[in-house]
Amino acid sequence: MLTATKISGQLEFLYGIMAEFDDPESLLAAARRAYAEGYREMDAYAPMPVEGLADAIGFRSNWVQRVVFAGGLVGAVGGFMLCWWITVIAYPHNVGGRPLNSWPAYVPITFELMVLVACITAVVGMLALNGLPQPYHPVFNIDEFARASRDKFFLCIEASDARFDPDRTRHFLEQLDPREVMDVPR
Amino acid sequence: MTPADPVTIQIGRWQRNSLLVGIAGAVLAVVALLIDRQQFLRSYLFAYLYWTGMALGCLAILLMHHVVGGKWGMLIRRLCEAGARTLPVMGLLLVPVLLGMSTLYIWARPEAVRDAGIQSKAAYLNVPFFIGRAVFYFAIWFLYSHLLSKWSADLDRTRDERLISKMRALSAPGLVVLTLTTTFAFVDWIMSLEPHWFSTIYGAMFMIGEMVESFAFVIALMIILSKTPPLREYVTAQHIHDLGNMMFAFMVLWAYLSFSQFLIIWAGNLPNEIPWYVSRLRGGWGWVALAIVIFHFAVPFLLLLMRGVKRRMNRLFQVALLMIAIRLVDVYWITEPAFYGQRLSIHWADLVLPVAVGGIWLAVFFGQLKSRPLVPVGDPRLQGAPRETVAF
Description:
Order of helices and strands of chain B: HHHHHHHHHHHHHHHHH
CATH class of the largest domain in chain A: Alpha Beta
CATH architecture of the largest domain in chain A: 2-Layer Sandwich
Structural class of chain A: alpha+beta
Number of helices of chain B: 17
Shape of chain B: globular
Strand order of the largest sheet of chain A: 2-3-1-4
Distance between the termini of chain A: 24 Å
Oligomer: heterodimer
Strand content of chain A: 5-15%
Helix content of chain B: over 70%
Largest interface: A-B, 12 and 15 residues
């Protein structure tokens, strides 16, 4: 009874447990081990893109791609319909004896609007999906974490994970040969 | 590479098979020549342009790779060098075109003197100058392919990194020279089939098109070779992703240039410009044009947008095969309507000649390929994968 209170008390203020590594290879290996161990709610932090790291922590979302594709489609259809509406409905003029619906002339606008809307959805969709800008994030409670944007590599297993247990998770991370293992307070 | 290397034996087998196909095709080509000389020359010109384009595209990729020095190019460099070294043979294979000039090009016929439009261009379009220019183009192309191959081989041996900047210094102006010479070459060899018509975007359009076909070819070959050492140790998903992106970018640039030419001529609708499209959109040619729009742009555009296609070898391989095939159709559509205007007719020689010239080209290519190590072992940038592209 006492232990249960202690653990739930700990869990309340604990965001997760973080391990610090010196190089991308160790981080990648650690992320793979943690995923194989069954941990899913985790995040890896590195100062530069690390090939295969997103796969290693099980991040397989392609929602940005889908949103951008939909945006591109909307832009293309919208651009074409805009040109068609202007030249056929709103201002029907005979230009050089061509039919009102002269589609080759619409193609540049269609293409440009496709690119424009796809780019805007990429930026907005990316921000909406990754939750940025985010004024507060618990990982910054650790001073050492400032080096994540310089020369150190971090793996944080979050307390929300189903397999998370303060002692066992800490023990597991310590096996991975990190520089240091730290509790991340909320 | 030693002669006993499994990959050398494999390439040697491909070389022999290509040569057999080339010889069989050449025999049929001679039959075509004996039956119908005019048809033979027309089919030969288109087949020749396709495979010369393959070699020139390899040279263009090689120059670009030396200028920017990205890791994407490290694993295809030897393939591009071998492709560029086939150019002397392509120079020899131009001889049938030169011998058949008066059959192929109306400006080279005696009755051209009665045509005022052709007469005004006679200072450029005449037989001796045409031959002289062709010799000049091949001399320049040979110089570049020879020097870059030689210095690259020296780099393997000496590991002297000054050679890298030497190759870059040669390649940067080389890109300008190559663009100008190929533009003039395609004006000479294809655009002058219709001497009254002109388009300034034509050379760039054709050059980018041949870079697409060369990218497709080296990507497909690299994927096949990556099953065995030495390439197996180097190829990563990021390499083929980058190469897929490059092919995608050049394919879109090709579409941009092709459509620009179409839009300008369509909008102008002038009697000296529009016949080029009229003869390429009427009488069955319109279906060929539609197939090019769909399979040279729409389908590969959608497929290569997807990250999953560019990072999986077998999928990217299939897209590369599609591009290799559709480029042949595009070269056919650009070249042949000059002869058959407004009526699509495919002669059996049109199918045989690309195989014959292709067999010979591939035999020379594989012969060149096995003479060097398959990866530039002396280049320090060979190690490791390219940086992951965050964008797409």
